[in-house]
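Q: My labmate handed me this sequence with no annotations at all. I'd like to see what the chain might look like in three dimensions before we decide whether it's worth expressing. Could you predict it?
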Amino acid sequence: MTTQAYLEHVAIRVRDLTWHIRFFEAVFGWRVRQVDGDGADPKQIWIGGMQLIAAADFDGVRGHADHVGIRCGDVAAAIAAAHAFSDVTTDPRGSHWLKLPDGFVVELLPAGPEAPAVYSTL
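A: Here is what I predict for the chain of 122 residues:
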């Protein structure tokens, strides 16, 4: 018999924690729920279902997941809010795939019990 379990968070290395905090607050309304280290210059933070780890020397090539899927009540509004950040681009997989600095990719999916899965091809 297996135990019941759920994913508590995904840990991602990023060069600039402050930028990522601003992005996730502005686009999704998420707030930092836990900070490790000095609040002005944290070592890592937990926001939404993610742990973001400060790694100033991170090269963006290895060391983090392919993408993080986020369900949204209004995908179009989230895309518009994300593109207000000049360094966010659209990933080749589709308009609902956002490429953040450091190569971190976020897939935006519709929320709700009737939400269809969204798949696109390269």
